[in-house]
Sequence to fold (225 residues):
Amino acid sequence: MKKILYLGLFCTLFAVSCGKDKDPVPDPNSGSYMNAKAGSTWNYEVINNLPPVSTTTYRLTSTNRDSSVNGKNYHVYTNSTNGRSEYYHVSGTDHFTFGSLPAAAGANLNVENLYLKSGAAVGATWSQPYTITVPGFPLPITITVTHKIEEKGLTKVVNNTTYNNVIRVSTKLAAAGIPASALTTDINIFYAPNHGLIESNSIITSTLIGNSNSTTRLKTSTLVP
Fold:
């Protein structure tokens, strides 16, 4: 039960995709904090900071396909971990992902996540509620994900590469009916122009779903102009 709920939270935050692609449509470069040019690649390392500490890597590759979701054109990327697709869309300065929660977490849980508002001022917040059904719980649980623009215009070095105009977004989780003391989060994600995600640090402490402490960093990238 804990594993299922944690996977649901992870998919909500990072929009892990489990669906099949729809028919392709033409693809423009979709925004300043994401590169949608076909052939662009990002190599990431993911560090599990809890014992036993471990590191895994994966590559994200921009394809030449888009997929229509809720009337929006989501650009399709592939993840080398298992070949699954990931979906990103940019509308003005709003950046979205789309993904499916695990089937075991409930039905009809394809969700859009507005993960970045690059045009918003420092201090701006936005929230999205997601309702999931977890075996062992008598009622569906509503998880509210709240993002906040903490800093803008940062210079940040990640794996010996310097990025400018970086935005730091914090993310908090709250579950209806669950005391705040039973679920605490410390999640900070850094985005750079044209590169997107360059680093994330995620600490989740919960008596219900267990603890998680992980770091994701961009190692190298090859971006098509």
